[in-house]
Design brief:
The chain is α+β, with helices and mostly antiparallel strands. The chain has 2 domains: 106 residues, Alpha-Beta Barrel (TIM Barrel); 69 residues, no CATH class. It is built from 7 helices and 9 strands; from the N terminus they run E-H-E-H-E-H-H-H-E-H-E-E-E-E-H-E. The strands form 2 sheets. It has a 6-stranded antiparallel beta sheet, with no helix packed on it. The longest helix is centred in the middle third of the chain and has 12 residues. The protein is globular, with a radius of gyration of 19 Å.
Length: 202
């Protein structure tokens, strides 16, 4: 029915058959894969082991009601479920979605959008180290060349650009730009028992 083309992105894809995968490959269609949510709701997930390296795949977390609480957690689920190499999992949240969605993101090169994070680890393999991350290990995070999150020592780099909130997450003081207190109030109304970062006074 001409429903597939290179701009088609299938979400979840739990019921994809071999014939479906062949059609996606033929037309250059992509997949957003959310394994944690799929397993929670249906007890199974997409056959990505038959698709990786052939079909563009992006890893997603779906809703936090059914999926992982963070993308870091989702990366660990993806690796465990399909026994994927660490480099492959990192590609699913960087270069692969960048290509699939035609975004100027997902790789470090001249002219690409400056979205990147820095973290500290004793692991000599950066891809393995990235699968052990939580919010506290992120030293700083940039989006479109704007510093939006990180250790409090880097907060002065946002001065004169964007306001920020001082928070404590997992025992470490961080800063976060934007109206985080308002977001916290909204979250508390819908999920009063959720463990949220502590907001510190300015």
């Amino acid at each position: 029915m001409n429903g597939l083309n290179r701009r088609t992105v299938i979400i979840h894809g739990i019921g994809l058959s071999g014939e479906d995968i062949a059609a996606m490959l033929s037309y250059g269609s992509g997949l957003v894969w959310c394994p944690a949510s799929n397993l929670y709701l249906f007890g199974k997930t997409a056959p990505v082991e038959k698709m990786i390296g052939k079909i563009p795949i992006a890893l997603g977390s779906d809703s936090t009601l059914t999926g992982s609480i963070s993308l870091f957690d989702e990366m660990r689920v993806a690796r465990k479920v399909k026994q994927l190499a660490a480099r492959c999992v990192v590609d699913l949240v960087t270069s692969e979605p960048g290509k699939m969605l035609c975004l100027n993101k997902g790789e470090i090169r001249r002219g690409a959008s400056a979205d990147f994070l820095m973290f500290q680890s004793d692991n000599s393999d950066p891809f393995e180290a990235s699968l052990c991350l939580s919010a506290k290990e992120v030293r700083y995070l940039w989006k479109n060349a704007e510093l939006i999150y990180g250790d409090i020592e880097f907060a002065n780099l946002t001065t004169g650009r964007r306001s920020f909130t001082r928070i404590v997450t997992e025992g470490r003081e961080k800063f976060l730009t934007g109206n985080f207190p308002h977001l916290v109030e909204m979250i508390k109304r819908s999920a009063p028992g959720l463990d949220l970062p502590q907001i510190l006074p300015k």
